[in-house]
Amino acid sequence: MTLTEKDSQYLWHPYTQHKTAQTPIAISKGEGALLWDENGKEYIDAIASWWVNPFGHSNRFIADAIYKQLTTLEHVLFGGFTHEPAIKVAEKLIEILPKNQQKIFFSDNGSTAVEVAIKVALQFFFNKNEKRTTIIAFENAFHGDTFAAMAASGISFYTQAFQGMFIDVVRIPVPVKGQEQESYDALKDVIQKYNCAGFIFEPLVQGAAGMVMYEPEALAKLMQICKEHNVLTIADEVMTGFGKTGKTFAMDYVTEVPDMICLSKALTGGTIPMAITTFTQEVFDAFYDDDINKALFHGHTFTANPTGCAAALASIDLLHTEEMQANIERIHKSHLDFQKKIEKHSKVITARTLGVIFAVEIKSESEESYYGSMRTKLYNFFIDKGVVLRPVGNIVYILPPYVMSDEQLQKVYKTIEDAIEMV
Ligand SMILES: *Cc1c(COP(=O)(O)O)cnc(C)c1O
């Protein structure tokens, strides 16, 4: 049996209707921005394997750090124990995060980082005997697939089977250009009507919605409104963190500081699943008490896994090298040139760039659904040409590993141009 035949016998893939899905491609090797399948066909990974892999596949620097840690201390329980890798990650993050972030809580993936933040927002008020049980989130947000994260997410076909079983979430419009006032007014309105504990948002870019972008000034304004009403703010930087927007964190563009930040994806350079939720001292202090019932009763078996921490430390070191910063700048400039060229095309509605993130919306005859026919046609075209891109409806986005060469990037652009001609 081939790998793909065995796969279809044994495996259940994410976001996949197995009856109608094409067989998956079996990848056997990765290096830098490239992947190779079992038949030796080469692909450019133009989306950094779901946005996790900024430093390239099979990165030696991170691999060496992991090996060293694996042969020193691979894991120790974090209940009642601690270790240097976790402390170093905390020190490092506190140094580079917005200045008010003081406490680090480890978990395993983006959804759990969000789950922890939402539970903390709710218990923060419970611990203070204040009744606040509603979470505010943006329309079309994506915060993950566990229950509270799913409740906060607004992409409805992901969550429709579970309607009526969620924590209370109210939604406000995203303050995209021209819609800012509507968003501010909606926020004030929901804060008036509901007992709001927290506001969770993807800062500046809504990834899964199709790289929808909005301005830092608008986010600052929304955060100010929250602050005036003592609503906790949660920046979900799971996608935007670690250089994607051109700064280390998207929040580095914003004049306001959040109460909590969620991190995962690029945290370990795409090597080991790990996530972190960070907090202000004030949030932590609401749980700090002689009463054990005020503690945060949340944890995972692999919390602060030392190997994951070693990978995170190596990744953060890599991010801050001159070479990697120059790569980010180079890709950003290149995207801007491509945007200028492509946005004039008659089949293009709009194009946008922030940091290494680029997105183009293609005109379509019919209303394009998330997994609609245009999306499938585009996806297959890209795969055929050896470029990994996953369009969202009629939106094609690029989020390359920072190590992608100019030549590879030009090939990605050219393939997108050809795809636009084709549809
Ligand atoms: C991917 C993502 C998540 C969920 O992360 P997982 O590791 O897939 O659970 C949460 N928030 C945002 C903004 C994301 O992009």
From TrEMBL:
Where it sits in the cell: the answer is: Cytoplasm
**What keywords were assigned to this record?**
Aminotransferase, Biotin biosynthesis, Cytoplasm, Pyridoxal phosphate, S-adenosyl-L-methionine, Transferase
Q: Where in the sequence is the signal peptide annotated?
A: none
| GO function term, MF aspect, one | adenosylmethionine-8-amino-7-oxononanoate transaminase activity
Site positions (Participates in the substrate recognition with KAPA and in a stacking interaction with the adenine ring of SAM): 15
**Cross-referenced InterPro entries:** Aminotrans_3, BioA, PyrdxlP-dep_Trfase, PyrdxlP-dep_Trfase_major, PyrdxlP-dep_Trfase_small
Cofactors needed by this protein, per the record, are: pyridoxal 5'-phosphate
Residues with PTM N6-(pyridoxal phosphate)lysine:
265
Q: What is its main location?
A: cytoplasm
**What pathway annotation does it carry?**
Cofactor biosynthesis; biotin biosynthesis; 7,8-diaminononanoate from 8-amino-7-oxononanoate (SAM route): step 1/1
What EC number(s) would the UniProt record show? Answer: 2.6.1.62
Where, in this chain's numbering, is substrate bound? Answer: 50, 265, 299, 390
Q: Which Pfam families match?
A: Aminotran_3 (PF00202)
| Annotated family | Belongs to the class-III pyridoxal-phosphate-dependent aminotransferase family. BioA subfamily.
Q: What does this protein do?
A: Catalyzes the transfer of the alpha-amino group from S-adenosyl-L-methionine (SAM) to 7-keto-8-aminopelargonic acid (KAPA) to form 7,8-diaminopelargonic acid (DAPA). It is the only aminotransferase known to utilize SAM as an amino donor.
Q: What subunit structure does UniProt give?
A: Homodimer.
For this entry, the protein name equals Adenosylmethionine-8-amino-7-oxononanoate aminotransferase
- Write the lineage as a comma-separated list: Bacteria, Pseudomonadati, Bacteroidota, Flavobacteriia, Flavobacteriales
From the UniProt record, report the name of the gene that encodes this protein: bioA
